Amino acid sequence: MMNTLAAIVYSSGFQIDAFMAGLAGQMKQQGRKLGGVVQHNGDDCGDGCHSMALEDLTNGRRFPISEDRGAGASGCRLDVAGLAAAGGAVAAALTDNIDLVIVNKFGRQEHLGRGLRQEIAAAALSGLPVLIAVREDFVSAWREFAGDDWTRLPAEIRAVESWAAARLAVPA
Fold first, then answer.
1. Which residues pair with 78 in a beta bridge?
2. How many C-beta atoms surround the C-beta of residue 140 within 10 A?
3. How far is CA 54 from each of CA 40, 66, 87, 116, rounded to the nearest angstrom?
4. Does 1 have pLDDT greater than 60?
5. Which residue has the higher pLDDT, 66 or 19?
6. Measured in Å, how far apart are the chain's first and last C-alpha atoms?
7. Which among 128, 60, 48 has a CA at the least distance from the CA of 89?
8. C-alpha to C-alpha distances, 78 to 44, 109, 129, 164, nearest whole angstrom
9. Residue 75: per-residue pLDDT
């Protein structure tokens, strides 16, 4: 039996959020029923800070996940309430009739035991194919979390589509 968990491993500086959102959009156009979340970043903070939101792939609803710290603030701060709401969307998708779960990334919050960690675990245990992005420097934390039963994918559309197609093929 082939594993149903794949991590798109990418290097720092790669525009993974745009890649994941584009991938999800392409899969939806192909008629795939998706669950999970992808991240969208706005350009309205200046100085490298972005307003961030997670999009629920089942219905398009967006959950803001960056706190507005006001004028003069430096850096961004993650809004944990928004992240929790997005987590609810991931959990709800697992009870829906979906083909594939996409979770934008396993990052610092998940490494620390927070963020979408529980929802990622539930998705992985659901039996549904799960696709997630993991930055190179978090691969060891990811492996501690996920074990060894996952597929490492490059951040290349063709490789990801090939993996997904093999798991979404309708049995004869």
1. 66
2. 11
3. 6, 10, 10, 11
4. no
5. 19
6. 16
7. 60
8. 16, 9, 28, 30
9. 54
104: closest CA among 87, 85, 80, 128?
Answer: 87
Q: pLDDT class for 83, splitting at 50, 70, 90? A: confident
pTM attached to this predicted model = 0.86
Q: What domains are there in the chain, each with its CATH number?
A: 5-68+75-168 (3.40.50.300)
CA dist list (Å): 170 to 29, 99, 164, 165, 167: 18, 11, 12, 9, 9
DSSP structural state of residue 112: T
Per-residue pLDDT, averaged over 148-159, amounts to 95
Total residues found in the chain within this entry: 172
Residue 115 has pLDDT above 80, yes or no: yes
Rounded to 5 degrees, φ, ψ at 43 are: -105, 20
**Beta strands, E only, 11-79:** 34-41, 52-56, 62-64
Per-residue pLDDT averaged across 102-121, rounded? 91
